[in-house]
Every structure is written in C-alpha cells, then in structure tokens.
Design goal:
54% strand; 0% helix; DUF1349 domain-containing protein; 17 strands; mainly beta; eight-stranded antiparallel β-sheet; DUF1349; Jelly Rolls; ConA-like_dom_sf
C-alpha cells in the first residue's frame, strides 16, 4: 500500500535560495529549469572510512522549518564515479543530510548520507532510473527528517529516517557534486515546499 503524501503546494523560485559554495555555472533554461555545472573535486563528506573532510559542493538552500516538506526534481544523466545530485539538508558543517542518486562502482544508486560529525552512507541500486526525472522529498516533523524518492510518477520509496534536533535551524535545497571530474551538468526541473508528511507508514 502506498503512503498518501500531500504534494508541496508552493513552487520555489530559484532566486529564493542562497548558494552554499557557488557552482561553476548556474543558468535558468527556457522551461524554467535550472542548469547547474558542478566544479571538479566537489563533495560533502566527513571522516568515516576515507579519513577526509569535504565540504565544497554547490547547494542552493532555503529555510526548512519543522512542519515543512521540500521536494527537488532533476534529470538523472550521470556517468562518472560519484557523480551525484539531490537534496542537501544542512544545520551546520558538521550536521547535515544529503539524499539523491549517485554513481557508485558503475551503477546509479539511490541513497543518503547522514552526518553528525561523522558521515554514514546507505545506497540501493536503481538501474532503471537512468534518463528519467527523479524527485527527492525531505519532510521535517518533530525530531525526525524523513527522506523519500521516486522516479517519474512511480510510488514513493522510503530512503532514510534520520534524527534532527527540532530546535535546530536548517536550510535545504538542490545540490550536485562531482568528486572525480570536471564538467558534470545537472538539470534541475523543480523545487517545491509544503506541509510535512503526516505519517511515516501507510495506514490500513
């Protein structure tokens, strides 16, 4: 049974956001899409296993208060190791969640990285999503951040349930990174905000 989610009712203009680390290029297309080129060796990661801290990816961020949900849509057209795009939810440099699709070991992977000083990472292959519009949804309610995603009009998939301090001020929005190359260009097709999800699981 699919959970019934209320679509965010307010489209967000790209001008509503502020860049955390500006991209190489960001320009609005003829249909209102935002075309973003990420710089080479950009990423978000803290310490775990790899030992480094990377905090230089481009992200266009707006407030995400408790009680709100946000969706970001983009076209999945990646090719190089660790090419990635989706939603970044950020409290500060040591507290954040990124969720979306990333190329890992030759496959497109739906996943999330939840970070509280140390990052942890989970992925699930989505080989059939290539070339399609992907939407990632983050919903903030109480002490939790719920992450869901889908391709086109398919059913929503639960990606992650992560803790988030209800007193924390968070911002969120589209991000992309290219840890291993230059020239990654991502077409973001939508950015929307509305009320938080009312349930974690389907009823009945």
């Amino acid at each position: 049974m699919e959970i019934d989610l209320v679509p965010p009712s307010e489209p967000l203009d790209w001008a509503r956001g502020a860049w955390l680390h500006p991209p190489v290029r960001a320009e609005e297309g003829p249909a209102g899409e935002l075309v973003v080129e990420a710089g080479a060796e950009t990423d978000f990661w803290r310490r775990t296993s790899y030992g480094f801290v990377h905090d230089n990816g481009p992200a266009l961020l707006a407030p995400l208060p408790v009680g709100a949900a946000m969706e970001v849509s983009f076209i999945l057209d990646f090719s190089a190791q660790f090419d990635q795009a989706g939603v970044l939810v950020r409290v500060d440099e040591g507290t954040w969640v990124k969720a979306g699709v990333e190329v890992s070991d030759g496959e497109s992977q739906l996943g999330a990285v939840a970070t509280r000083e140390f990052s942890d990472w989970s992925v699930s292959p989505v080989p059939g999503w290539a070339g399609q519009e992907v939407t990632v949804r983050v919903s903030r309610a109480g002490d939790a951040l719920t992450v869901r995603a889908r391709v086109a009009d398919a059913a929503w998939r639960l990606v992650r349930l992560a803790p988030m301090d209800p007193a924390a001020e968070a911002v969120a929005g589209p991000f992309c990174c290219a840890p291993t190359r230059a020239g990654l260009t991502v077409v973001f097709t939508g950015w929307r905000q509305g009320p938080a999800d009312t349930a974690l699981h389907p009823e009945g």
